[in-house]
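--- STAGE predict ---
source: upstream dedup step, 1 unique chain passed
mode: sequence only
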Amino acid sequence: MSEPHAAVTDTAGTDVAVPAHRYTADLAAHIELSWQERWAAEGTFHAPNPTGDLAGGGEVPAEKFYVLDMFPYPSGKGLHVGHPLGYIATDVVGRFKRMTGANVLHALSYDAFGLPAEQFAVQTGQHPRITTDENIDTMRRQLLRMGLAHDERRSFATTDAGYVRWTQWIFLQIFNSWYDHDAPRPGGGVGAARPIAELEAAFAAGERAVPDGQDWADLSAAEREDVLGTFRLAYVADVPVNWCPGLGTVLANEEVTAEGRSERGNFPVFKRNLRQWMMRITAYGDRLVDDLDRLDWPEKVKTMQRNWIGRSEGARVTFAVAGGDGGPSAGADGASSVGADGAAAEIEVFTTRPDTLFGATFMVLAPEHPLLDAGVPAEWPEGTHSAWTGGHTAPADAVAAYRAAAAAKTDIERQAEGREKSGVFTGLYAINPVNAARLPVFIADYVLIGYGTGAIMAVPGGDARDHDFATTYQLPIVHTVAPPSGFEGGAYGGDGAIINSANDEVSLNGLDVAQAKRTITAWLERRGLGAATVTYRLRDWLFSRQRYWGEPFPVVYDSDGRVIALPDELLPVELPEVPDFSPRTYADDDAESSPEPPLARGEQWVNVELDLGDGPKVYRRDTNTMPNWAGSCWYELRYLDPTNTSAAVDPEIEKYWMGPRTGPDGKPTTGGADLYVGGVEHAVLHLLYARFWHKVLFDLGHISSVEPFHKLFNQGYIQAYAYSDARGVHVPAEEVTEEVGSDGDPIWTWNGQVVNREYGKMGKSLKNMVTPDEMYAAYGADTFRVYEMSMGPLDLSRPWDTRAVVGAQRFLQRLWRNAVDEETGELTVTDAPADDETRRVVARTIADVRTEMSAMRPNTAIAKLIVLNNHLTSQAHVAREAIEPLVLMTAPVAPHIAEELWQRLGHTESLTYHAFPEADEALLVAETVTCVVQVQGKVRDRLEVAPSIGEDELQELALAAPAVQRALDGRGIRKVIVRAPKLVNIVPA
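--- STAGE serialize ---
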């Protein structure tokens, strides 16, 4: 191929001629675009399936590797240089795996439903599909120019009709299933999703009792559906939801910030009871926790999921309720008073500390607790403390006022640490089942209806919040665990001997906490007053959105309001055209408003005539849409088989790419993608939801893998320095210069004035955004790739410095000069044997780079390559046996220049599938010395290096060491002191 002529501009602004064949940005672009065209034409990165449309011409390799990036959202702003870090990393890993013999599947698609495109449509009137497609085109162009080795045949968007069809189909699999805790699970274990038809048949045959003792045969179709709805894994229910008037939609808990505002738009969020679609993810609570132990995930992510699921073991305890006048008091025999509706009134609580029951001195209900709907006493009971009434003359007034005030607060506000506890007495009393004590029942906003049972037994002797409340309202405090010596008062929730805990039938006194829990739980179970149980912090997943730009629900409602699943042949249900894309929005603080989705405006679409087996009838469609999480719950499966029109994924194909393998311990793994790379911010959102959908499909026999992602890697972030002047106004970061002040410390100036430097997120607002397009134009894609991969360990965040990119360019320029004459373009490599020292350096580099690449440490691998490259630069003639391994090892990080050099070295085939070099073991036996690496005088690492290593090479290795990168923690470098081969001392800026 021919290269464009090159020129550079000096500081005076004049063009300076450079050798015609120097590796410049222009030459890099020419090489890169040419090789990208060839890869596309030859289908270089097409991964063959074992069967189906994407099958290859023969047997698929036994060794496979499925590498996956977290689903990107196609933003209208395009990419900045921080976005591709994970994409380049997975590309490097995938290219390395191909060279080690694996059949690598790597593809990228677009999570295209979402609120930003819809908000843009609301503002401009442009259909969100137009906006989304334009954004995808921009992102696809930027990624293609990067040289990512994706199988483009497997690319799609969640908005594609073919993809929507299968998202809706999976929803119906969940809707038409229930969780049978006694069902055998595929692969072993008990408890699995089963078709709802099996439950319906069991009710009809009398094999399973219908709840509330009803006779299945006597129930109408609508009544039967009501019963089944209490079991379905996807169901409609009136539930407390996060209502955001400013957005006109409800939000999942995970979409609400810690301040009680919407993640998108920062609007206030309120609790409302609304009829919504829910997913019974809580049925999988145990499995979602237990299977984390089988996954190769960062421990911090596992911990986040465990905490979010919040499994707690304890006991449910029933407290009888007595009227405010004392009523027919119930005692330890379990008798209870009669409520306003004529039924026995009870309060059920869940507690992880049933051993403290004897220390319960009052009860607290969430303000939304349904017991209060049945009414409270008309008058305050005799002896009611004035502090308990909230200044009201009757319990009903006090309760109503307090409930109204609590409704205006967010869950975060209600549970904030350190806030003063508030509450009012309801006029009701509960009977402690262990000692018949009458416990006043309060309502307080620090108890939430969505957690546990919405009621607690308050033990102020053992719980700090209860202690604060008891102190405020002058309630008794009883300790049930002996505090240690030196205890200074307050609540004590630690271990110790049980005290003050006995009745005529059971005594816990003297037992330790664990023994006491078992003893009192057994007593409660014998008396029918409680039972051991497990509960979760995790709530069922709110699955409705009052938006336009999302997947429609594949159901209709009949005249009775009964939900009817649409048959497969009517999928996909596509979005209609509507005159207005926005849901009705309200004033930010209009908590009493109600949703009005934009789909409700499509009258002909909403009310549709269908023949669903019993003649044409008019049905009503659901006007809500699914959340954008729906499409990202299963995309890893569609990559495997994207052209299949008869199944979401062929089971044989899924088994090949994701099926369980035998682990190092000889046991089968969970299966799933071999490597999943993305940000930690999705730990309890996408990752949890995707695991739930995957397990349902596994239970129903559609897939063989228990988990979607076997290994998870969280990449760090690329952030950037931003600069502001004396007014606090940000100035363009690329125009700032760094100087050394009189005290030796750095200062930064812009247009002659000193500016302040800060470290933060890259973006337009801080005027520090750098795009990949700028890097391609100034340096080329390979230089950009090498720089991003050499900045530090992949799992750590680091600052972007455009001025440092030139270092990566110099590495590639040296590599080019080691093989090509810059003046003539002729190959300069000799076929003569390399000298012994060079052969040893090559062997050591091969061994080290293999190790670093296998461990996903491309930064240290690049440092090793630089050492070898610099060694070859010092030689008069570079031997083929030395340069060819270097080119092959460089290929994963800088594929375009590597392909070009490989071709110039006389090879006609792409090096994509060429074997990665193997080290000659005989050459690895060489004398080494230990180099101590210090950061600010403290030893951070030790390197084994050759005695003859040069200072530049040793500095490169030291700066790339993971321990050094962690010690620097994103700081710049003031100077590096090198005393080869035994010492490197790094002084941070």
